[in-house]
Amino acid sequence: MELRTFFERLAARCDQTGASLCIGLDPDPTRLPRHLGSGPEAIYRFCVEIIEATADHAAAFKPNLAFFEAIGVEGWHVLDQVLRAVPHDVPVILDAKRGDIGSTARMYARSLFDRLRAGAVTVNPYMGHDSVEPFLEFERNGTYVLCLTSNQGAFDFQLADDLYLRVARRVREWNTRGNCGMVVGATKPQFLTSIRAIAPEIPLLIPGLGAQGGDLEATLAAAPDAPPHHLLFNVSRSIIYAADDASFGRQARVAARYYLDRIQRARRKVLGLGTEGAEE
After folding, report:
1. 87, 111, 160, 225: most buried, per Cβ within 10 A?
2. Would you call 68 helix, strand, or coil by DSSP?
C-alpha cells in the first residue's frame, strides 16, 4: 500500500533505519573542505556526498534554506538539485521557518511544497492561525510549528509567561487534518513533559542534540510513550562537519552511525530494555 502522508512515510522510515535521526544540511561556505573549491558547485558536491554517505542512516534530511538563499539565485538551483539527490524513500523537511499573512503564506506554501517538493516544512506561528493555515491545507505534507526552540533566545518570548504552552494548545487545535508537528529543542527537556501533556499526539522535530549539547536521554525520558517518529532528533553540524578534508563523507557516515546508535540505546534504556541488541 502506498504511504500517503509525510508522517506515514516518516514512521516507515524510522522503522527501516531503526532510529529517528534527521540529518540537517547546513552548507556553510566557510566550512567546506578546501578540495571542493568554492561557490555553488562546491555546495552541491558537499551536500550530495553527505547524502550519499549517510542516507541509509537517515530517517529524514533537513536542508536549511538560509544556506542556499545566501548564495543568490544560483542557490535555488543548487537546492533543487540537492533535493533530487535524496533517495525517494527518505522524507525531506525544508527548514524555512516561514510565517506571514495568509496571502503571502499561501505563496510560501506553494513554493516549498509544489515547486521544491518538500515533504514537510518549519513555520513560525507568531502571526497566528491565518499565517499557518495555508501550509496545513496541503494535507499530505507536514508542517512543524516552532514551539520551544533550542537557542538561548527562547527565554525572551517563548518561555516568558508560558507562551510555548499557548503555542502547543493552538497547534493541537489546528491539527484537524493530522498534519501538524512542533519544533521543540533538546536543550530544554525539562519543559517537554508540559508540552506533551497538552499535545501528546503531535509529532516533534527536536534540534539541538549535537553541537548545541542537547540532552537525548532526558528528552526521551520526558516522552517514553511516544512512537519513534514523534521524536525526530535533528543533528546537523556534528555530522556534516565531522571532517574538513577529503574524508568528510566517510567521517559524516561514522558520525551519523554514532548518533543513530545513541538514539537506539537511549530509547531502549528509557523503555527498560537495557542496551542489548543495540548496534555498537
Report:
1. 111
2. helix
pLDDT of res. 279 = 45
In a domain, 127, yes or no: yes
Cell representation of residue 90:
527518505
228-277, pLDDT tens digit by residue?
999 999 999 999 999 999 999 999 999 999 999 999 999 999 988 866 54
Domain count within the chain: 1
Alpha carbon distance 189, 99 (integer Å): 25
Q: Are 256 and 23 in contact (CB under 8 A)?
A: yes
Dump pLDDT digits (tens) for 101-124.
999 999 999 999 999 999 999 999
Whether residue 227 lies inside any domain: the answer is: yes
Which helix (H) or strand (E) segment holds residue 94: the answer is strand 93-98
CA-wise closest residue to 240 among 19, 16, 10, 33:
33
Q: Which three cell numbers stand for residue 64?
A: 536549511
Please, what is the end-to-end C-alpha distance for the chain in angstroms?
33
CATH (domain of 253): 3.20.20.70
Q: In whole angstroms, what is the distance from residue 273 CA to residue 280 CA?
A: 16
Catalytic positions are 97
Q: What angle (nearest 5°) sits at the alpha carbon of residue 58, between those of residues 249 and 45?
A: 35
**Long-range own/partner contacts, residues 275-280 (CB < 8 A, 24 or more apart):** 279/18
Flag whether 278 is in a domain. Answer: no
Domain housing 156: 6-270
| Whole-number pLDDT of residue 280 | 36
Within a domain: 190: yes
Give the predicted TM-score (pTM) of the model: 0.95
